[in-house]
UniProtKB/TrEMBL annotation:
Its cofactor is Mg(2+). It comes from the Bacteria. The lineage of its organism: Bacteria, Pseudomonadati, Pseudomonadota, Betaproteobacteria, Burkholderiales. Its EC number is 3.6.1.-. This is Phosphatase NudJ. GO terms for molecular function: bis(5'-nucleosyl)-tetraphosphatase (asymmetrical) activity; nucleoside diphosphate phosphatase activity; ribonucleoside triphosphate phosphatase activity; thiamine diphosphate phosphatase activity. It is an enzyme of class 3 (hydrolase). Pfam families: NUDIX (PF00293). Residues 6-141 form the Nudix hydrolase domain. Belongs to the Nudix hydrolase family. NudJ subfamily. Monomer. Keywords: Hydrolase, Magnesium. GO terms for biological process: AMP biosynthetic process; ATP biosynthetic process.
Length: 162
């Protein structure tokens, strides 16, 4: 067994729209070991995929929407200790903003109760239900205009080799 510490790499999609003069964000409600939580469409990087491929896949699986990443909002790191199990995990999150281009009639990923549009104020009001403190931080950075071009992300072709 290796003594090398490895964080858990995750991706998240920050998707917004203007609806009747109100800015809304696409969020998910999910069942976790610590109860029902609110999050962006997010999940783990799988073997043989780039970070961009991961956020596209996770958004489809959790919201039934096709997602086109346009920019990297930020890279975030946070330690989580489960209040129920005591398990400790450090997450390294790559948050992307972009657009949804299609909605599909398909079941959502296991554990996802629903995808929903929420205002920033509604998201702030339910912070105690957020999956992590990174949920709000990603939105705040997005609203502040923080963006990095996708060209900063490079995946060597050998990653996709199975």
């Amino acid at each position: 067994m290796s003594d090398v510490w490895k964080p858990s790499v995750t991706v998240a999609a920050v998707v917004h729209r203007q609806q009747q003069g109100r800015q809304e964000f696409l969020m998910i409600e999910e069942i976790t070991p610590d109860g029902i939580r609110i999050n962006q469409a997010a999940g783990h990087l799988d073997p043989h995929e780039s970070l961009e491929q991961a956020v596209i896949r996770e958004t489809l699986e959790e919201t039934a929407h096709d997602f086109v990443p346009e920019a990297l909002v930020g890279t975030y790191m946070s330690k989580f200790i489960s209040p129920k199990t005591g398990e400790e995990v450090t997450y390294l999150r790559f948050a992307f903003c972009g657009q949804i281009v299609a909605k599909h009639d398909r079941p959502l990923d296991k554990g996802i109760l629903r995808a929903m549009w929420m205002s920033y104020e509604e998201i702030v009001a339910c912070q105690d239900q957020h999956r992590s403190p990174l949920v709000l931080r990603c939105l705040e950075d997005f609203l502040a205009g923080q963006r990095a071009p996708l060209q900063l992300m490079y995946t060597h072709p050998n990653v996709n080799n199975k």
